[in-house]
Amino acid sequence: MAGQSKSRAGDLRLWRNAQLATMAEGSAGLGIVEHGAVASRDGRIVYAGPESELPPTLAQGVETIDCEGRWITPGLIDCHTHLVHAGNRANEFEMRLAGSTYEEVARAGGGIVSSVKSLRAASEDELVTQSLPRLDALIAEGVTTVEIKSGYGLDLENEKKSLRAARQLGEQRPVTIRTTFLGAHALPPEAKGDKDAFIDLVANEILPSVAAEGLADAVDGFCEGIAFSPEQMARVFDAAKAAGLPVKLHADQLSNLHGAELAARYGALSADHLEYTDDAGAAAMAKAGTVATILPGAYYFIRETKKPPISLFRQHGVKMAVATDNNPGTSPLTSLLLTMNMAATLFGLTVDECLAGVTREAARALGLLEETGTLEVGKSADLAIWDIERPAELVYRMGFNPLHARIWRGQ
Ligand code: DI6
Ligand code: FE
């Protein structure tokens, strides 16, 4: 897989004898086609529908793959990860299991700051080497697009190093990588407790420089008592706007600072976590078209008890994405299949909501809905082919991977 060329997609291919979950917007449920076929040319979908209606020109003299009745879904999308990081925090996990509090762990040199130290000590190539196994775990489950955030560098040089490492991962594997600048993630030790001064640095120096180099596709922040206030986040978002970058936000994870409303006010692509979001927050998100990204891995790992208000999101018509939040501190999770099971079991998402959450809605949360996330003509031919009898199996199993094949841009 390594070093595979990304540019030899100039051929016509046909996957036939398949059951499709197209996930197309507007179609009922999963957009199921029972006797279906998908055709791609130059890496783009040129047909997805009933095999009986396949145009003859697409059926002759093309490379044909008989799917033997297997299911085809869009390639999966993990729309919220901190996958580029150095080292791990298994030691903190052990301390917490032995009864230590989060504060005690932090005083013993743990927490986000320990991940910052590890990342700063690693070279860009070391970061790539350490992150590849996590990316490969996602790819092995049919993931074709991954969002990766910075946020463990927290100075100009190290934030850029993280984002370059993330871009490199996309060169080394057949997968689409979207990068997000998360400078306002935590306060680095050298800021000596001065959050406002650090936000100035992020908004006025680091963000414009990252944007000028084209290293980020979006800007994110951690709006929380232990991180940054809504006012501070607004300054970062103003800088993002000035740089022409869309925003998203870690909002209302541990308390309700009305991060969801802040995100909506800035037309954010998504607001993420949202355990403490209230009715006004959900209404604002619906109005702005901001996707709610649900992250059950972090909820589970930190043993949170407050669940995100799924019924409010449904009532207001807020679209829901589901993602791993892969990070060393609160969600060391690299399985999007298990994440779907958690979203269903812990939060009561339906199978249809889970599958939409890791395909169409995850694409929407990345601003990529025109490009991927459903089986529709014109989109990238990103497919996952599964050895299953019904789509619910993708959500139901825990720790079993029924992927038969994975296609990225037609290959
Ligand atoms: N929310 C989280 O759960 C993680 N970051 C964030 O903004 C925590 C990251 C870490 O502990 O390393
Ligand atoms: Fe996160």
Description:
The chain has 411 residues and is an alpha/beta fold. It has 15 helices and 15 strands. It has helices at 90-97, 102-107, 112-121, 124-139, 156-172, 195-212, 230-242, 259-265, 279-288, 296-301, 310-316, 336-347, 351-357, 360-365, 393-396; strands at 12-21, 32-41, 44-50, 63-66, 71-74, 76-78, 143-149, 176-184, 218-223, 248-251, 270-273, 291-294, 320-322, 383-386, 403-407. Helix 8 links the parallel strand 10 (248-251) and strand 11 (270-273). The longest helix is centred in the middle third of the chain and has 18 residues, at 195-212. Residues 1-9 have low confidence and may be disordered. It binds 3-[(4S)-2,5-dioxoimidazolidin-4-yl]propanoic acid (DI6) and fe (iii) ion (FE). Fe (iii) ion is lined by residues 80, 82, 250, 325, 327.
- DSSP helix count? 15
Oligomeric status: single chain
Give the ordered list of helices and strands.
EEEEEEHHHHEHEHEHEHEHEHHEHHHEHE
* Mean pLDDT across residues: 95
Q: What general outline do the C-alpha atoms trace?
A: globular
- Between the first and last Cα atoms, what is the distance in angstroms? 11 Å
Describe the secondary-structure layout.
Elements: E1 12-21, E2 32-41, E3 44-50, E4 63-66, E5 71-74, E6 76-78, H1 90-97, H2 102-107, H3 112-121, H4 124-139, E7 143-149, H5 156-172, E8 176-184, H6 195-212, E9 218-223, H7 230-242, E10 248-251, H8 259-265, E11 270-273, H9 279-288, E12 291-294, H10 296-301, H11 310-316, E13 320-322, H12 336-347, H13 351-357, H14 360-365, E14 383-386, H15 393-396, E15 403-407
Parallel strand pairs: 1-4, 1-5, 6-7, 7-8, 8-9, 9-10, 10-11, 11-12, 12-13
Antiparallel strand pairs: 1-2, 2-3, 5-14, 14-15
The structure holds 3-[(4S)-2,5-dioxoimidazolidin-4-yl]propanoic acid and fe (iii) ion.
